[in-house]
What we know:
The chain is of the alpha+beta class. The protein is 44% helix and 11% strand. It has one domain: CATH 1.10.630.10. The chain contains 17 helices and 14 strands. The strands form five sheets. A five-stranded mixed sheet has the order 1-2-10-7-3. The protein has a three-stranded antiparallel sheet with strand order 4-14-11. Helix 13 packs parallel to helix 17 (369-385). The chain binds protoporphyrin IX containing FE. Protoporphyrin IX containing FE (HEM) binds next to helix 12, helix 13 and helix 17.
Amino acid sequence: MERTVGATDLADPQVYAAGIPHGVFAELRTRPGLTWNAIGGDISDGFWSVSRHRDVVEVSRDPETFSSAVGHIQIYDIDADALDARASMIDMDPPVHTRLRRLVSAAFTPRHVQSYAEAVRNRVRDSLDAFEAAGAGDWVAAVAKPIPIGVICDILGVPEQDHDYMIELSDHLVAGTSSEPLDPGAYGNTTDLRLLPFNSPAAHALNEYAHSLGEQRRRQPQDDLITKLIEAEVDGERLSDEEFANFFRLMIFAGNETTRSSMSHLALHLARFPEEFDRVRRDRSLIDSAVEEVIRYSSPILYFRRTATRDVVLAGTPVAKGERVVMWYAAANFDSDVFADAERFDVGRPTPPANVAFGGGGAHFCLGASLARLELSALLDEIVSRDWSVDVGEAEYVDSNFVNGIEHLTVSLR
Ligand code: HEM
């Protein structure tokens, strides 16, 4: 059967230089079926682009057909030994995934997350007080970076003095999805880059850090998630050093990069749609829907990939066993079949339907969704309480085909 091939290579990080390529995604959504993305123009090396909301949900909820453990969850395949060495629960299918996820899920339930509320609020207030005193600055460095890393490090038990190092390593990991080559020897790395997540030497540094912190907790247990992971047992066995380090790295990356991105976009929206923030100021019951709208609009993770484990028909398109299926969350979140007037930033938008920024549901649905919502609602509530109006400079986007991050954003308070 003839494949419909997309005109834009969505694997190219340059496509995201000015944020989500809405025009390209809108075109994909109007085409019947799925569109084949030829990487670098090579028709034989590509993937299926999934751009509609209902199709993203379908793929997300069928891990037997659309596997996370085969090939890779990012666009480029990696070798089986590399997959093995890198694998954290996000790269696994049930039931292996289920057992690992159970180890940490209790710490992230909506109820348990409420116990972090005061600490989160304090971090938000401290950052905003300092920003207010300065009157202007780089919002990403002053607010969006320190809050999420502070919160996830508190939960894990990473000491305050190491938070900046965690930010640095997490940024370095994302650089692995950019067009720039990485220095293989950075952070004293001697491991072959292909065996490291994001092909990044920062993954080596995070592993080393995890080992030393884990070692400390083994000697001196504390009331934190690291200690729980060290002591946890899956089927009567403790996590291996490698499994523990992979867990730690996933938490640091996932708990920080994404929420940061929504916080950066929040400042952009504040400048672009001040009247929407006035609505929240007048009616605080809109906080929850406003947070969902910020998350939908920012879609911090552009995609995750799955691999077909059998021949299957998706959205009317035959997908062969072994083919790559890329779910563009950032496209599905603007699907007008699901979101009325999808381009509009509307803090009162009803939910459901849920956006798919946290995934389309199913086994891997974002573990930290409640935590991210808690952080964003604290930030939004504090901002509207302060009655700020802001000017923003040009957003400088992260060079990546994977995250919709903002590197720098100058914000000035009026
Ligand atoms: C706005 C913020 C966030 C966004 C947009 C986001 C997005 C996502 C997405 C798209 C996935 C994959 C879903 C799937 O495959 O179905 C995911 C998984 C995950 N997220 Fe988040 N995330 C955010 C915040 C957080 C936070 C704060 C944490 C802290 C713990 C976190 C931890 C995780 C973990 C551990 C996974 C893997 C879950 C699994 O494989 O079972 N995320 N997230």
